[in-house]
Automatic annotation (TrEMBL):
Record-given protein name: N-acetylgalactosamine-6-sulfatase
Residues in the signal sequence: 1-30
Domain named Sulfatase N-terminal: residues: 37-349
Gene3D superfamilies reported for this sequence: 3.30.1120.10, Alkaline Phosphatase, subunit A
Pfam name, any one: Sulfatase
Family, as annotated: Belongs to the sulfatase family.
Major enzyme class: hydrolase
Keywords noted in UniProt: Hydrolase, Signal
EC code(s) of this entry: 3.1.6.4
GO molecular function: arylsulfatase activity; N-acetylgalactosamine-6-sulfatase activity
Top-level lineage group: Bacteria
């Protein structure tokens, strides 16, 4: 009996030891940080600085984006690279001033169907793809109409959306009266409200790739015209008459409906990440491609989309990641769209392109610590406006041919022109603008690129 008891005891002890080790390993594995980090980039179209309720909007509510801000970080001094669509998107993709690649104005459906972001440009999607990430874009491309400029040739594995500046939310017809809804590089007919389709494809992509690293880009059409809610009929037909803003008389109401639908869709994307346990390993960034139109809300800033006043390029930016980003914090570090590429790469611990020196900086240190001391930097818009610390110089604007100088810390509304009081500051900033333009010209010459604003040289 003694022998049997010893054997039984030994067996129990061994079983207990093995079980304990197994549980310890299991618990340790669960507690370990994931081996990869995902990124989701969400860009609104023509969203003004005051167009979200968490940024002061009272016309409608954006509860999901408000929650994203409450659980993450809200930026107060974030800017779009351009004051219109295509330029900002080129800067986002490349991490450089868009002018270095010739995308210095809108690539229009009528006049620029042979122009686009050069394929030599290395995009953030290519960087992630080269390191084993699944990549996708659902929504607006606006970096070239021809198949050679398609997103699948710029690092994206999957593309569903449109390549022009805007489409009918229901019929997916562009302003030139051409069908513009693509699955990769194939023109496709597909029923559905654009905002809903973007959300549906985004959710499916996350679910299909939840076991592997992914990079997801969601450039929404909202709140760009045509102003159509989810229950409206199509305004555009193939070969039909030119339709710009849409047929609704109550455009402000349509605008609100569009915002509500985008907000819900973004909430669904965040909920999908949480559902699959991906929230803590996924950085989500939300911002706009430029300031709002006259129908939007620029938060009391001067100017609108298309201008170099603050209202043309100061936009909301929200960062969300439960592991990295402290909840409910604000950051006032000066930042711009071309900072997104290096930020994504830094978060995912990926190297930057060797042969493409980025103009942007990583914002990750500020996402991790919003109290970090701000870095003084210089930023330029269209070779016409420059920000240096709190100083901003605008060379000229609509109806204004003389330089305007502002101290934004004291005059964010840009009402008090200090150019006559500080002529040396005007001269200093003008020299910096000229130096910036010289660097752009060097880039264009080296790359053999003709800007969109100029005719192609034969």
């Amino acid at each position: 009996m003694r022998f049997r008891f010893d054997c039984w005891f030994t067996r129990c002890f061994l079983l207990l030891a093995v079980t304990t080790v197994a549980l310890t390993v299991s618990q340790g594995t669960a507690a370990e940080k994931p081996s990869h980090r995902n990124v989701v980039v969400i860009m609104a179209d023509d969203l003004g600085y005051g167009d979200l309720s968490c940024y002061g909007c009272e016309r409608y509510q954006t509860p999901f984006l408000d929650q994203m801000a409450a659980e993450g970080m809200k930026w107060s001094d974030f800017h779009s690279n351009g004051n219109v669509c295509s330029p900002t998107r080129a800067a986002l993709l490349t991490g450089q001033y868009q002018q270095r690649w010739g995308v210095d104005r809108v690539i229009t459906a009528a006049g620029h169907r042979d122009r686009g972001l050069p394929l030599e440009a290395v995009t953030f999607a290519e960087t992630f793809s080269q390191h084993g990430y699944a990549t996708a874009i659902y929504g607006k491309w606006h970096q070239g109409y021809q198949a050679r400029f398609n997103p699948v040739r710029q690092g994206f594995d999957h593309f569903v959306g449109y390549v022009s500046g805007n489409v009918d939310f229901q019929s997916h017809i562009d302003q030139a009266g051409q069908a513009d809804w693509w699955h990769n590089d194939e023109l496709t007919e597909e029923a559905g409200y654009v905002t809903h389709l973007i959300t549906q494809y985004a959710v499916k992509f996350i679910e299909d790739n939840k076991e592997q690293p992914f990079c997801l880009y969601l450039p929404h059409e909202t709140p760009h015209y045509p102003y159509q809610g989810p229950n409206d009929l199509a305004d555009r037909t193939v070969g039909g008459k030119f339709v710009n803003h849409g047929s609704r008389d109550d455009k402000a109401a349509a605008y609100a409906e569009m915002m509500i639908e985008m907000d819900r869709g973004i909430g669904e994307v965040l909920q999908t990440l949480q559902k699959h346990g991906l929230a803590e390993q996924t950085l989500v960034l939300f911002f706009s491609d430029n300031g709002g139109t006259s129908l939007g809300d620029n938060g009391g800033l001067r100017g609108t989309k298309g201008s170099d006043w603050e209202g043309g390029h100061r936009v909301p930016m929200i960062a969300w990641n439960p592991e990295t980003v402290p909840a409910g914090r604000d950051c006032d570090q000066l930042a711009i769209t071309h900072d997104i590429f290096p930020t994504l790469a830094d978060y995912a611990d990926l190297p930057l392109p060797k042969d493409q020196s980025l103009d942007g900086i990583s914002l990750l240190p500020y996402l991790e610590d919003p109290k970090r001391e701000n870095v003084s930097r210089e930023l330029v818009w269209n070779g016409n406006a420059i920000r240096d610390g709190n100083w901003k110089l605008i060379r000229k604007a609509k109806g204004i041919q003389q330089p305007h100088l502002f101290n934004l810390e004291q005059d964010l509304a840009e009402q008090n022109n200090l150019a006559e009081k500080h002529p040396q500051k005007v001269q200093q900033l003008t020299r910096k603008l000229n130096a910036w333009q010289a660097s752009i010209d060097d880039s264009l010459e080296t790359r053999g690129v003709t800007p969109v604003s100029q005719p192609v040289k034969n």
